[in-house]
Amino acid sequence: MIVDFYMIKGCEYELYQGRHVIFAPAATEENLLYTYRFFRTDDGRACHFLTQDEYYHVMNNMSSGRAVFGSGSFIPIQSGFGEPIPPQEKDVNTLCYISLILLLCSFFVTPIVREPGFSTLFFITSFVLAIVARCKNSKSTFALVLVIVHCVLLALAVIGIIMLLIACGKIIDSCSEQCAIITAVRLSSL
């Protein structure tokens, strides 16, 4: 069966791995495939899993041999199904670049300004922007890498603080023992 899925004309309806899907023609632009939530299968074809509403629309048009989406004939039962999602890569990438700049500033601003509060503020702002970018587009690899880098740096900072506290505790214990020995020696010499 032929399916015209909004701006992607001539898709083929199939049952793929037990799910109802449509495959886009081979010459379809990548940007258009991304816009309408297509992904590449192992064999390289562009595939879109049909929602329940989309599947029913295809089945209702089975007798005509062609299902058309976006002509006003398809109205999803629940809002959001079947509607194109415009790519937000530009906004997400802008947020990621700002986050990366703030992350780098968090390392280099402390020696210049000599105020650790600025560094912490830049790091937290950078982390929040990376999370916002990841929430806006969960497929953004750039945002995912930034979030992972922030989490690793945060974990390293926590581990460093814990090690510093342990080292301080050991130094204090060592000083206490030294002080006890010195006090005992002084008392015995009296």
Topology:
Blueprint: E1 2-5, E2 8-16, E3 19-23, H1 30-35, E4 39-40, E5 46-49, H2 52-60, E6 66-69, H3 89-113, H4 116-136, H5 141-189
Parallel strand pairs: 1-6
Antiparallel strand pairs: 1-2, 2-3, 3-5, 4-5
Helix pairs in contact: 3-4, 3-5, 4-5
The tally of helices reads 5
Order of helices and strands: EEEHEEHEHHH
How many domains make up the coordinates? 2
Beta-strand percent range? 5-15%
User: How large is the radius of gyration?
Assistant: 30 Å
Structural class: alpha+beta
Q: What is the molecular shape? A: elongated
> Please, what is the average pLDDT?
81
User: What's the β-strand tally?
Assistant: 6
Question: What can be said about this structure in brief?
Answer:
The protein is α+β, with helices and mostly antiparallel strands. Helices cover 58% and strands 15% of the residues.
Key traits:
single chain, 190 residues, alpha+beta, 2 domains, six-stranded mixed β-sheet, 5 helices
Structure commentary:
The protein folds into 2 domains: 2-69, no CATH class; 90-189, no CATH class. Helix 3 (89-113) runs parallel beside helix 5 (141-189) and helix 4 runs antiparallel to helix 5. It is an alpha+beta fold. The chain has helices spanning 30-35, 52-60, 89-113, 116-136, 141-189, and strands at residues 2-5, 8-16, 19-23, 39-40, 46-49, 66-69. A 6-stranded mixed β-sheet has the order 4-5-3-2-1-6. The protein is built from 5 helices and 6 strands; from the N terminus they run βββαββαβααα.
